[in-house]
Amino acid sequence: MAKEHGGGAVSGAFVLTPAAGKKLIGKAVAALPEVQRAFTGGRLLVANGTTTGYIVEALTGKPVNHFQYCVGVVAQGKFTENPASDHTLLYWEKGEMRNLPFKDFL
């Protein structure tokens, strides 16, 4: 709902679902010059998480299985680790995806 203020200024509010908010964050992070530079010409490591799945999607232009990127779940009132995830770290070097253990990346 928009509200008009004096001088013609208008303000408003809107609500995003959690998934839409994470997608917006993912697109914003992927568009950062530092992230683009690391992704295309340097080294970039992306850890697991539902929001980071959207970052990977925005960087690669390919859809991802977001549950695969989920690190934890809340089920039956308990916070637990996602057993279906191996918590693989995603690593790119000059735009090419690499399969490299985390200790070797460091």
What would you say this structure looks like, in words?
The protein has one domain. The chain is built from four helices and seven strands, in the order E-E-H-H-E-H-E-E-E-E-H. It has helices at residues 18-31, 33-41, 50-60, 102-105, and strands at residues 2-4, 10-12, 43-46, 72-75, 78-81, 90-93, 96-98. The strands form three sheets. The chain has a three-stranded antiparallel β-sheet, with helices on one face. A two-stranded antiparallel ribbon has the order 1-2. Helix 1 crosses helix 3.
Strand content: 15-25%
Q: Give the N-terminus to C-terminus distance in angstroms.
A: 49 Å
General form? flat
What topology, given as strand order, has the largest sheet? 3-6-7
Chain-averaged pLDDT? 82
Number of strands: 7
Q: What is the number of domains?
A: 1
| Helix/strand structural class | alpha+beta
User: Main β-sheet, in a few words?
Assistant: 3 strands, antiparallel
Rg, nearest Å: 18 Å
The percent range for helix content is: 25-40%
Work out the helix count: 4
Sketch the topology as an H/E string, one letter per element: EEHHEHEEEEH
Q: What low-confidence regions span 5 or more consecutive residues with pLDDT below 50?
A: none
